[in-house]
Amino acid sequence: MTYFVFFLGVCFMLGGLAVASNPSPYYGVVGLVLASVVGCGWLLSLGVSFVSLVLFMVYLGGILVVFVYSVSLAAEPFPEAWGDWRVLGYGVGLL
């Protein structure tokens, strides 16, 4: 169980890093969804399943609203992906 909680913590940190290091909202929302799913899994491992479910529904609704708003403002024909050198530089700088 300890390894599972540690794994969830590492995935949560990677999700936050994915949001912070990517300037494109198309790929940044993947990090937000990953962080919310892992955070709710972390709460499930603590035994608070109702709070986890409510937070997941509220947070996922907020993510979708922010994602649609960001995409409508930043309509890019060629968004930057995680494989680009600039984006990898952001990730290394944040670590």
Automatic annotation (TrEMBL):
<feature type="transmembrane region" description="Helical">
    <location>
        <begin position="53"/>
        <end position="75"/>
    </location>
</feature>
<keyword id="KW-1278">Translocase</keyword>
<keyword id="KW-0520">NAD</keyword>
<keyword id="KW-0813">Transport</keyword>
<keyword id="KW-0830">Ubiquinone</keyword>
<keyword id="KW-0679">Respiratory chain</keyword>
<feature type="signal peptide">
    <location>
        <begin position="1"/>
        <end position="20"/>
    </location>
</feature>
<feature type="transmembrane region" description="Helical">
    <location>
        <begin position="30"/>
        <end position="46"/>
    </location>
</feature>
<dbReference type="GO" id="GO:0008137">
    <property type="term" value="F:NADH dehydrogenase (ubiquinone) activity"/>
</dbReference>
<dbReference type="InterPro" id="IPR050269">
    <property type="entry name" value="ComplexI_Subunit6"/>
</dbReference>
<keyword id="KW-1133">Transmembrane helix</keyword>
<keyword id="KW-0812">Transmembrane</keyword>
<dbReference type="Pfam" id="PF00499">
    <property type="entry name" value="Oxidored_q3"/>
</dbReference>
<keyword id="KW-0732">Signal</keyword>
<dbReference type="InterPro" id="IPR001457">
    <property type="entry name" value="NADH_UbQ/plastoQ_OxRdtase_su6"/>
</dbReference>
<dbReference type="InterPro" id="IPR042106">
    <property type="entry name" value="Nuo/plastoQ_OxRdtase_6_NuoJ"/>
</dbReference>
<dbReference type="GO" id="GO:0031966">
    <property type="term" value="C:mitochondrial membrane"/>
</dbReference>
<comment type="function">
    <text>Core subunit of the mitochondrial membrane respiratory chain NADH dehydrogenase (Complex I) that is believed to belong to the minimal assembly required for catalysis. Complex I functions in the transfer of electrons from NADH to the respiratory chain. The immediate electron acceptor for the enzyme is believed to be ubiquinone.</text>
</comment>
<comment type="similarity">
    <text>Belongs to the complex I subunit 6 family.</text>
</comment>
<keyword id="KW-0472">Membrane</keyword>
<keyword id="KW-0496">Mitochondrion</keyword>
<keyword id="KW-0249">Electron transport</keyword>
<protein>
    <recommendedName>
        <fullName>NADH-ubiquinone oxidoreductase chain 6</fullName>
        <ecNumber>7.1.1.2</ecNumber>
    </recommendedName>
</protein>
